Amino acid sequence: MDTSEFIQFAKATIDYVADYTDTLRSRNVLPDVEPGYLSKLLPKEAPQKSEKWQEVLKDVEKYIMPGVTHWNSPYFHAYFPTGNSFPSLVADIVSSAIGCIGFSWIASPACTELEVITCNWFGQMLGLPSEFLHSSNGTGGGIIQGSASECTFICLLAAKERTVRRVKQLHPELDEDHIKAKLVAYTSNQSNSSVEKAGILGSMPMRLLPVDDKCSLRGEILKKAMQDDMEKGLIPCYVVATLGTTSTCAFDNIDEIGQICKEYDIWLHIDAAYAGAAFICPEFRYLMSGIQYVDSFNVNVHKWLLTNFDASVMWVKDSKSLVETFSVNRIYLSHDKEGLIPDYRNWQIPLGRRFRSLKLWFVMRIYGVQGLQEYIRNDVKLAHLFETYVRSDDRFEITTEVILGLVCFRIKGDNNLTKELLNRLQARKKVYLIAGMYHHKLVARFVVCSRLCREEDIAISWNEIRSQTTEILQTKFNKESIKNGIKSTDDMAARIESLNLESKKNMQKIS
Ligand code: PLP
């Protein structure tokens, strides 16, 4: 393909991306395919001869799109958002064109240096203590990893090395393997699955501790668990606290947890994968009170900061702990500027790394801090609008305080009602929500995800939820009334209808 043909191809692709974005509202958020659908449609082997790009692009719409879950649809309310914006998409094109593998400074100085700068910009935007920033006189700094899972795991490995060194100093007679076998990590039973996985990968038991009624891990619970372990001769090593849990967006009490970690010299990592982005707005920073105690902190800009997957920013106060854990040297990796600026290969698991900071830089510059704050605040406002709809309908309850973009709600009564609601919504494919747990209650999680989401979209999603609930309750009451005699069917149907009408009226009032 020559350059002029590439330009035509690229322009047509950009047009396609713009059309796709424009038509997202009219597509079902969930696809209507069964496992294995694609292998029935595509050839069994790669083509021997070159094909026309026009055909390839056409096949994206014909074969790929029918199997896509549209994470950027305004009716996608599942999981947490996936970052997406035009500046970020465009930056990824530039990054791919440069195609450098920036494992060390010399491997592509701009790749390392822009990452240092964007991590500092972002750290300042969040109001992180200055010890987390790159500076000429400290050991702190940020790096862009691929995922929050990697950050949690990397910090576990660094905590392990740090603890072994500490214990070795106190007890030189102990051998390293003996110490490693005694290390224990702690987190709440609400933390993301990736935290438990980090324990498995790092061969360190990860205690999943109980939480209070707000799903928050408290200091006393942590202290008791650690003391129990120490009495058994085990060594507390690593704590992962979450700011914005996946299930209910709960916030662990890092003021309390942090003081305990400091007292026992234990590495405290904060997983703020989703909620961390909100701290660019000063009014949400109270949620990270206790940040001064923290060793490492992570925010996925690929979640709630308009930056395409993957980009998970992680800061540490003591980058030496990472370097001591991860550096393996070879002659072909050395260069004469070593030590003057991070060689990020020593802060991460893989050797190779992409030029991810470009997309964060484009996003920060093209939105500006104010534009990004507006985006966060608007999503929170939309979540509160949805909350108002739910509260206006007597058939539902809100289970946890709505703080950011997640609303946890349920149909009053048995868990099966909410389960059925989620199943029906999934089968109809128009809006997508998933389940969470609030203590023993099953909840539907409604997250404002898409940057395209507007008030009208929230109303459309709510209408779908409301009308499906009416059908579920009608079916349930019909079944019950068959058991109890026909008359009650009419009474119950009338009651359901009146609740439905009341909810509709309330919705009109709110709008
Ligand atoms: N932590 C929290 C609180 C999350 O909600 C998630 C994913 O939703 C993760 C970690 C995992 O993120 P990643 O896919 O970047 O590893």
TrEMBL record:
PROSITE patterns: DDC_GAD_HDC_YDC
Lyase is among the record's keywords: yes
Cofactor: pyridoxal 5'-phosphate
Coiled-coil annotated spans: none
Gene Ontology cellular-component annotations: cytoplasm
Gene Ontology molecular function, alphabetical: aromatic-L-amino-acid decarboxylase activity; pyridoxal phosphate binding
Signal peptide: none
GO biological process, one term: catecholamine metabolic process
Modified residues (N6-(pyridoxal phosphate)lysine): K303
Keyword terms, alphabetized: Lyase, Pyridoxal phosphate
Record-stated family: Belongs to the group II decarboxylase family.
Protein name stated in the entry: Aromatic-L-amino-acid decarboxylase
Annotated source species: Atta cephalotes (Leafcutter ant)
Gene from which the chain derives: 105623405
